[in-house]
Amino acid sequence: MGAGTTKGEALRIRRVRADDMPRVAALDRRVTGVGKAAYWRDIFARYGKRRLRERFFLIAEPAAHGAGKQLLGFIVGEVRAWEFGSAPCGWIFALSVEQGARLRGVGEALLEAIAAEFVKSGVTKVRTMVARSDRLPMLFFRGAGMAAGPYIQLEMDLA
């Protein structure tokens, strides 16, 4: 992947490894308040080990020597194609940054890294979905230049 800087701090973005998964699950638990280690093991099996030209599970860590055990954030996405005739696009379905690392460019570096991977895969558009009421991701993605697209999300209760 590569390196970047987060307001003076060197940052390394790389593909996830199996030994990262406890830190990924712990970060997600701190951010969401829900522990779901089994879910993250499954995501690693699907996005960290298979079809790696179109699936991306990236982590951000300090680039300093010996700092590799500190997880600053992660992003997960894939190239998706042909849902209801749509052209292939990059799809981001997970992004999380350690609270103490926010506003230091970690999320932006992760988004840039996955966008570069999507471009290498041949797509020219990226999509995600956020709840209208979830202010933090809404502000982040809008600030990164994302806007409402041509599709509308539909849902119905099954109960």
Q: What is the gist of this entry?
A:
This protein has a single domain (2-143), classed as 3-Layer(aba) Sandwich (Aminopeptidase), CATH 3.40.630.
Give the strand tally: 6
Q: What kind of sheet is the major sheet? A: 6 strands, mixed
Mean pLDDT: 88
Task: Find the structural class using helix and strand composition.
Answer: alpha+beta
Give the amount of beta strand, in percent: 15-25%
Helicity, as a percent range: 25-40%
The CATH topology is Aminopeptidase
Distance between the termini: 44 Å
Number of helices: 4
Which descriptor suits the 3D outline? globular
Second rung of CATH, namely the architecture = 3-Layer(aba) Sandwich
Return residue spans where pLDDT drops below 50 for at least 5 consecutive residues: none
* Domains (count): 1
- Which CATH C-level class is it? Alpha Beta
CATH-level-4 superfamily name = Gcn5-related N-acetyltransferase (GNAT)
| Rg from Cα | 16 Å
Widest beta sheet: strand line-up: 1-2-3-4-5-6
